[in-house]
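Q: My labmate handed me this sequence with no annotations at all. I'd like to see what the chain might look like in three dimensions before we decide whether it's worth expressing. Could you predict it?
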Amino acid sequence: MEEKQIDKIYELIDASKYDEAEVEIKKILEVDSKDTDAQRLLALCEVNLEHYDQARSILEDVIKYRQDDALCWYYLGCCYDNLEEYVEAKFAYKKVLELRPEYVDAYKSLAIVYIKTEDHDHAIEYAKKGLEYSQEDYALYYILGTACMASKRFEESVEYIEHAIKLNPGNVQLYNNLGTSYLTIGELDKAFETYERASQVDPKDSLTYFNMASILQLQNKHKEACEYFAKAHELEPEEDSYLVAWALSEVKAGQFKEAIEHYKYLASAYPQKSSYRYNLACCYQVVGEYEVAITLLKQLALLNPKATNIMKKLAGIYMASGQYSKAKEIYEKIVTQGTTSFQLYYELALLCVKTDDIDRAEQILKKVCKLNPDFALAHKDLGVIYLNKRLFDYAKDEFEQAYKCDPENYSVVLEYANYLHSTSDFEKADEFYQKAIEIDEENPNGLAFSALNKTHLKQIDLAKEQITKAMKKCSDSAFLLFIAGRIYFLDKDYDCAKMYLIKAYELEKLPDVQNLLGLCYMELGNYEQAKSIFNNLLEKAPMNVNVLLNVAHCHEKLGENDDALRCAEKITETFPECEDAQELIRKLS
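A: Here is what I predict for the chain of 589 residues:
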């Protein structure tokens, strides 16, 4: 090659004009195809143009004639490295170091190859050898930090990367890697501080903000995390992985409307990812837009008919919206697909109870008990069904088994106590009610049932004390107010009983509440009001003997004897054995 040609080629290479340099080199090779200097320069251009296969082919030929050319071996190593031919790359880099032991770039490249092949000890060895020739090369410390991190030597990793930052404080990637090291060893605060330093070095690096958001996410600081996810997304709006993490924090932070918008985009952009539509449905469920959630889950169920989690979520939304029959249908489908999950059968049994399919619930609960004989809740619920059917012996067996399986379960202990109360074993019931209260002091139902039981033990003052405690925990419960009214009625404090019963009836118009309120008015001598209440009950149950009898007594007290007599005769037409009605007829005739 002529000196002028060489100068021009080097000028082009120095200016990174590799295509133009190639043209000039090929002109030389057209004259002398064996010119190894020209071939070497051509390979250099090919490497810089990332044409590694072509560069390798040239260098493999050149190296036959230039075995002692360290630079040729180095670039050949680069070609092998980028072509993922790591055995050959190691050989070439080692050849460089044999020829030129001070060639620091070869140590760095060789260490990186060892990291890629997960031979971290050798990576550390060669990087340290490189430090013997250059203690001011930040890349060597960076490589050492990376190798130590990969080999789980995290404390060492932190030391090396911190040293690299001292040498090159303007490299944002070093801060991000140091943050990752701190993150790995659980130093979340230090990791966050490091990422903050990175954001000062390069305020436009989106990954830094994403990493900061991720730490806040790990610390359950989801509202703050959302702010940093927003910054990361603003800087790199096309990076959808930021949106995925951001939406998760929005859900955790209760920002469901914002999460909905992000999941809508993700579901549209990635229709093959069913998880985005599933999460979108969950968000719609939380904000109460059940129909939208149901539509989305139905679509997913069609695409994944055997996806139990989707079917259960759909059933859950039907339950939340009071559509128990539809929820039950879904569980029936899940069961018919074949399952040995006692939990699935148990959930189906609960839905059968909700839809008044008690016989089916009983059948399924028996199956649950066979699948898992130690599942206390199934025995307890089966006991409740037997109790309601007045099969007391069967109920006793199930409650005893439930208690044996889980004696510290609140609902098991409470229902066992209710069973004992129903069978008039008030003393033993009291023991179990007290245990239920000890297990869950904050649950007002245990206090309420216990209070009711204490009335049968003639412990009215204790009953009033317990129901007062229960109402302090939950002041707007119709059930608790009804129990309070019942206790004060038994204590003959009819004004107080009336107050509680009126509040209970305002919350929930139940016949039992209405009937007891009518009895209160009778005891208070307000027979007109009592009669109005009982007549209202008769509209729903015209042949209720007790209510008819109460109406008759109200008529009698108001001097409306003919009306009282008609009510009594109506009772005896259907129930001639009713002694109270017969006595009233004799009295008024």
